[in-house]
Amino acid sequence: MEKKKILIVDDSALMRKVLCDIILSDEHFTIIKEACDGLEALNYVLDNLSNIDAIVTDINMPKMSGLEFLEVLEKNRVKIPILLVSSLAKEGAKETVRGLELGAFDFVTKPTSMAETRSNNFKDEVLKKLCYAVKVKVDTIIRSSSPMNPKVANASRRPHKKTPITEKKLVVIVSSTGGPRALQSVITLLPKSLPCPVLLVQHMPEGFTESLAQRLDQLSPINVKEASDGDVLQKGTVYIAKGGSQMRLKKTGQLYTLSVDKNEPARAGLKPCGDILLESLVETDFAEYICVVLTGMGGDGTLGILKLCDCKNVCVLAQDEKTSTVYGMPRVVYEAGLTNEVLPLGEITSAIIKYVEGK
User: Fold this and answer.
1) Given 176, 211, 220, 280, which residue is catalytic?
2) Which residue, 22, 214, 251, 266, shows the most beta carbons closer than 10 Å to its own?
3) SS (H, E, C) the chain
4) Rounded CA gap, 268 and 144, in Å?
């Protein structure tokens, strides 16, 4: 078995040692080079393009930061999967969202203590995301990332019924790995006049979803905000589930309000979890639910959509394999027999608008 060659970039010798120990603990990987800043890494990358399978890099470094490093790689059209090691600080969240825009595959948050640095949680996250980045098939990782019930694989669903634009509709989007960049392609093209609300679950820690919402709001004609507990749904607004909390929708009288609960536990390791949001929609009464499953590892969204399809009028759109960073979540919902259309990323927004308008 030929091992995947990993480049580590970090100005901290201690963090380089930690990352090396983690990566070398897996038989699939070897360390091809350690660099102490983006400039050293860039010089190595440009001379060894065919000899690097993935890069693990810090963001804040002297001489050349991780973001500057990514910008140069994008300018030179270098296509190497990059895993960011991000600070949990607010500024770190903004930089991470920018890094994902620039093409980073995904990110892990930097431990805040030595004990956390040596924890299995950090180690497992680094290895899992590296495996997906370089397309290493590890059965245990794939199984643990997908809460899919095998019985769902042969599921069938009622035909979708188009409804006129005057009917109450709701758009729900679920995304994970590769999602921030995909969402920039989808959300920024939604019109300000969209005649329904949009609920969005992107798998991210607390703090990062706020930065994502702010960035998408800056770039989009439609309003985008991180959801708050008690928010009343408004047309023409995208509500992003808060990282580290679970989001549900409730109907109170004639109003639809969001419940954002930090204390509710994770499901299948996810907080926020798309399945939890989708299951809550069973108690609502929209004429049509337009569910969109974008790139991501695992199977979040499928079980929730299945429950919704049992009692509601649902249209399901899934991103195709070619344009997905990780063809996990869209694959699972497709193999469950729940999709109405499988589309490349560039056609998702127009499809959402088409169904919202009843065409």
Assistant:
1) 176
2) 22
3) CCCEEEEEECCCHHHHHHHHHHHHCCCCEEEEEEECCHHHHHHHHHHCHHHCCEEEEECCCCCCCHHHHHHHHHHCCCCCCEEEEECCCHHHHHHHHHHHHCCCCEEEECCCCHHHHCCHHHHHHHHHHHHHHCCCCCHHHHHHHCCCCHHHHHCCCCCCCCCCCCCCEEEEEEECCCHHHHHHHHHCCCCCCCCCCEEEEECCCCCHHHHHHHHHHHHCCCEEEECCCCCECCCCEEEECCCCCEEEEEEECCEEEEEEECCCCCECCECCCHHHHHHHHHHCCCCEEEEEECCECCCCCHHHHHHHHCCCCEEEEEECCCCCCCECHHHHHHHCCCCCEEECHHHHHHHHHHHHCCC
4) 8
- 268-314 tens-digit pLDDT: 999 999 999 999 999 999 999 999 999 999 999 999 999 999 999 99
The question of whether 160 is a catalytic residue gets the answer no
Annotated catalytic residue within 203, 211, 245, 320: 203
Nearest to 98, CA basis, from 116, 118, 120, 71:
71
Distance separating alpha carbons of residues 278 and 317, to the nearest angstrom: 14
pLDDT for 78 beyond 80? yes
CA 226, CA 223: separation in Å to the nearest integer? 10
Catalytic residue among 220, 300, 320, 324: 300
Peptide bond into 191 cis (omega under 30): no
pLDDT digits (tens, 9 = 90+) for 169-223: 999 999 999 999 999 999 999 999 999 999 999 999 998 999 999 999 999 999 9
The answer to whether 300 is a known catalytic residue is yes
Per-residue confidence (pLDDT) for residue 142, from 0 to 100: 40
